[in-house]
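ok trying this again, last paste got cut off
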Amino acid sequence: MKVYTTDKIRNVVVVGHGGCGKTSLIEMVLYKSGVTTRLGSVDLGTSFCNYDHEEIKRQTSIYLKIIPIEWNGYKINFIDTPGYADFIGEILCGIKASDIGLIVVSAVAGIEVQTQKVWRMLYEKSMPRAFFINKCDREGSDFDSVLNSLKNTFSNKVVPFQIPIEQGQNLKGIIDVLTEKAYVYKDDKFEIKEIPQELNETVKIYKSGIIETSVETDDALLEKYLETGEVSEEELIKALHKAFNSCELFPVFCGASTKAIGAEELLNNVISIFPQPADTQAIKAKDAKGNEVSIRPDSNEQPAGFIFKIISEPQLGEIAIMRFYSGKLTPGTELINIRQNSSERIGHIMVIRGKNRDEITEVYAGDICALPKLKNTYINDTLSSPKRKLLFPEIVFPEPVVDFSIRTASRKDQEKLGNAFSKILANDPTIKLQMDPEFNQTIIKGMGEQHIEITMSKIKERFLVEATLDKPLIPYRETIRTQQEARFRHKKQSGGAGQFAEVALRISPLERGKGFEFVDDIVGGVIPSQFIPSCEKGVIWAMKEGVIAGYPVVDVQVSLWDGKDHPVDSKDIAFQIAARTAFKMAMEAAKPVLLEPIMNVEITVPDKYTGDVTGNLNSRRGRIQGIESLAEFQVIKATVPQAEMYGYSGDLRSMTQGTGSYTMSFSHYEELTGQLAERVITESKKREEETREKE
């Protein structure tokens, strides 16, 4: 592939709901630009983009793909992203590396949950946005309805630049509103013809809308237009650029990707209307002194770039994908990894297109490139010249919402699991792995059940680790309802040195969430001061073990108010044992109860599924805190016991036909009583017995 300067580059992230045809759109432009000789299909497993085993099997995009297209002397870096919330990390990485967002919407399904979410993500970045209404050839497609929905939902600045000539199986082509030309297709070839008479008036109305929306960004041009009703082509293009770049105009394109209708027209508009990297908003960074600076792509400056993706390959190992923001980069350049405080020598520079890798001699500011075999570089790292040290803001990834415990087949597999996850976590920051010391279980956390299933499949196939997923144990807690006292004397005389300690404790309930307080109420030195910490250790020892079900005790105050010692036999361990036993005696009498963790859950669903989702939450002992409208969707806020959220990701997908999504975070602990508490206690005792038998 040729090397392109900043002004000849466009960076476009392709986003939208799963199944809207994002990858098919990329397949279409690959074919029309001559990269492929046939139109790839996701459904048939012949996609150029979705070449991963899991993607072929599931017929959906899982990973971000960099797909550069060369068109009329320009390079367009398309970034194809997944369409489901499970893979939101890939979407965030794609947005970080781009200048323009192209939101793909199905002409049949219209606006869906992920359409709303990606709009919000792009809006928060103040990134220019355009729409591509796909599948205009499908039965039930309705371009006008989807267009009106986009206007009503997002902005009245949503303006059609193209409209279809008929729809569904009768789709004949598209009309370019600005040039007032009709592209009539036969197979995947088109002829430019006159606009059908019945669409002339519609095209004039839409063209006026484009002009009026564009000139509003320039007072002098607006005044001229109002006076004369005309603007020159040069003035209009300049106004279009300004309006689009300042998010005052959101163009709408259309087509049918599986029939290659709309590719040339889209690519031409990307070149003529979409801004080059230097025209977009400046990138904020910090200099060596920590001061905020604004960076615009300039190939004459010192080199600096941001690593937004890491991919692993058997032959090349780890490949860092970089958005290059400043300067010119050539092989042999020495850069500083600011976050890791280490140096990296650039050996090779590559362009990635799907699974193809081409080596290039240099890369200019504003472009995207791949750097293989770096020593110590990961996602969110900044590579910068030692002469001008810059640090770019990191991608903020959401916290995982689904967790499972991992059971390995053998100790050897457990050892290999750690190595496998060190590779996985470097490539996917939305996966978390942690060791739960309370239950001695390995916990994997992710953005959804499918996300975790795919990760485990990768671990098995690439790293040969035999492991299965299981329901994680819930971190219940124990506490008390009333105040109680207990006294215990520990006395041991069995030859040799003896042990003696007597401890009197008073335990009282604390407000929920207060944890633990130890109060020294000893008067007159009845327990020597050196043994007071021993008593506290004994209490903490007992609290970790629990009393009714083996779960840690929380929200109690323990007052040490009396006791006795022996001048010879009193020791640290004796007071620990006495305090531990006295605490358990007092706790058993203080009406102990179980506490269960309660989660804050926020679910986003289309309005028609609200009743089903709230009903399901009620069946999970959830409490609805409120429902907010978000255009055509409802955001349901609820608190739900953690124990009831296992498997919720799959259930929500089934209830909402894949359109619902949710986030979850810890809220607080609440008392668990009745049969539910009895069941937890029984299961806990059963686990203890099984553990003792294994030992």
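PB: full thing came through this time. The chain has a mean pLDDT of 92.
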